[in-house]
Amino acid sequence: MAPQASLLDSLKHHFGYTSFRDGQADVIEQVMSGRDCLVLMPTGGGKSMCYQLPATLFDGITIVVSPLISLMKDQVDGLTRQGISAAFVNSSQSQAEVNDIFQRLAAGQIRLLYVAPERLTQHYFLQGIASLPIRLFAIDEAHCISQWGHDFRRAYTQLGCLKRHFPHIPVMALTATADVTTRKDILEQLGLHNPYVHLDSFDRPNIRFTLAEKYNGQKQILSYIKQRKDDAGIIYCSSRWQVEKLSKFLGASGINCAAYHAGLETEIRAYVQDGFTKDNIQIVVATVAFGLGINKPNVRYVAHFEPPRTIESYYQEIGRAGRDGLPAEALFLCDEQDISRMKKRIAEHEDEQRAKVEMQRFQAMTDFVDAQTCRRQVVLNYFAEFTKTRCGNCDICLDPPSEFDATEVAQKVLSCVYRIEQKGDVQYVVTVLRGQVTPLIQKHGHEKVSTFGLGKDKTPSYWFSVIRQLIHLGYLQQDIAQHSALKLTEAARSVLTAQETLMLASPRLQRASYWQQNTATKQYDRKLFGKLRSLRKEIADAEDVAPFIVFNDATLAELARIQPRSQAQMLSVSGIGDTKLARYGEPFLSLINAHLGD
């Protein structure tokens, strides 16, 4: 295992950072000792560092499983500009190019190799890499492995073969969004041996959660984009025709935007993604097809024009905003008709079991929409990250509803869940509380439990609201693997035993249309920042790479704040290492010195 000082030296030399983010050093030390790992970090939380830094220290090759060609290219472009030898093998290359890469691998000239799961699991490819000095397999977007994940991809499920072919080589699985069921499935599918599991906070505090009632969707989105001026953004729709309709409206209104969905030709999709990544397209209006591989750190907002199917997909999508750590916003335009249409679409799925699971997951999404408690708490508790602290950066926290002492009614709900042995879903618990006799309740004998009929004086909607909030606050969890049965959490004990007073939100009659601009966390010279951004775009265009591969916005903001006058001072800026300083330092220093001399 490399000593901590060696890790920090490599971190600064190659990546320009002087310290690790939370959890990174622990994961790196574990994998370098030869241990399998499951790494759960939020989008933009630094997952890739967990395998890229070890690759610079291993005497051998790290193979990275990546889902998209465009993502591979961005990663390799970024690594090579940081002085790290990397390559990819995918369908865009000729056989001669692939052969050349294998020759370089055999000669020890490549440290990281990116491949798609479809290629890595092919028998001939496994044979081809068998003799190479492989030190680590890193599987990015590992939630794709699980049938319970929101982006099930069949080729990923075959990656369990890695442990059969290479039993002594550590495997690292990485993802940003996976609930408890999905995590278990990932571990089982990959056959990881005594893995080190790092579960980081899912929280992205720099992203503001904003829900607004959709009453004139197209004009609302247009007004919102104009408020954000030149900010880059993504707008998600649930259907192709809605993507086309909205993008045409915005384009006719003078917005620099493009449509993206699976029905477009491959060349068009590649053009849009490349244009967005290189800051030539400001807004992309897309279906979920514009998903994995969006490696653009300066997306300032993600808007949902229609509801996504799951909390996982919602959180993955909004995670594409603010990856540079600067303030960003997630806007959700709510419409009950959209929700009804989505439910109907899910119900029409030809696979009945799949439809049932998807409907259960979508219910969690509608609960998020209906939440009257801190929206960040709803999301974090869904991922089993229990927190009592409200975020102060969502529409509920910024415009809170009224509250009431709900200790007694919560006790009724939690006691009912306990009395029916935690075997009923929300609808079932409400039916028991309201004292309704049904064949199913009689079958289980639950008309005889002490909580039967305790809540008959309240409407079903009242109890649904209370139960949703108890789920949101982490006192109850829904077990997807058991038909969304409600389960008591450890936190429920304090409410059941009256050790705390529980305040819940009184239902709001309507949701206000609410959002506001984020403000920058640190002050910097905005005129200089604009000049630096223009210079970055010129260099990136000349090298035919995305601007963030040169420097990301956070690094430019720090340059505009610190205003270094020498190479030594420039090295103190986060994100600038030795290789990038040698490559880009002179033109940026010249610009800064010229600006300060104006």
UniProtKB/TrEMBL annotation:
Gene Ontology cellular component terms for the protein in this record: bacterial nucleoid; cytoplasm; replisome
Keyword DNA-binding found: yes
Entries under InterPro entries matching the protein: DEAD/DEAH_box_helicase_dom, DNA_helicase_ATP-dep_RecQ, DNA_helicase_ATP-dep_RecQ_bac, Helicase_ATP-bd, Helicase_C-like, HRDC-like_sf, HRDC_dom, HRDC_dom_sf
NCBIfam families: recQ, recQ_fam
GO molecular function: 3'-5' DNA helicase activity; ATP binding; DNA binding; four-way junction helicase activity; hydrolase activity; metal ion binding
Similarity-based family: Belongs to the helicase family. RecQ subfamily.
Gene name linked to the record: recQ
Cofactor: Zn(2+); Mg(2+)
Catalytic activity field: Couples ATP hydrolysis with the unwinding of duplex DNA by translocating in the 3'-5' direction
Keywords, comma-separated and alphabetical: ATP-binding, DNA damage, DNA recombination, DNA repair, DNA-binding, Helicase, Hydrolase, Isomerase, Metal-binding, Nucleotide-binding, Zinc
Protein name in UniProt: DNA helicase RecQ
BP GO terms, sorted: DNA recombination; DNA repair; DNA replication; SOS response
This enzyme's EC code(s): 5.6.2.4
Gene3D superfamilies documented for this protein: HRDC domain, P-loop containing nucleotide triphosphate hydrolases, Winged helix-like DNA-binding domain superfamily/Winged helix DNA-binding domain
Source organism (scientific name): Thalassotalea euphylliae
Occurrences of domain Helicase C-terminal (ranges): 217-365
Short name of any one Pfam family annotated for the protein: RecQ_Zn_bind
Top-level EC class as recorded in UniProt: isomerase
UniProt domain HRDC: residue ranges: 522-598
Domain of life: Bacteria
CDD domains per record: DEXHc_RecQ
Domain Helicase ATP-binding: residue ranges: 28-196
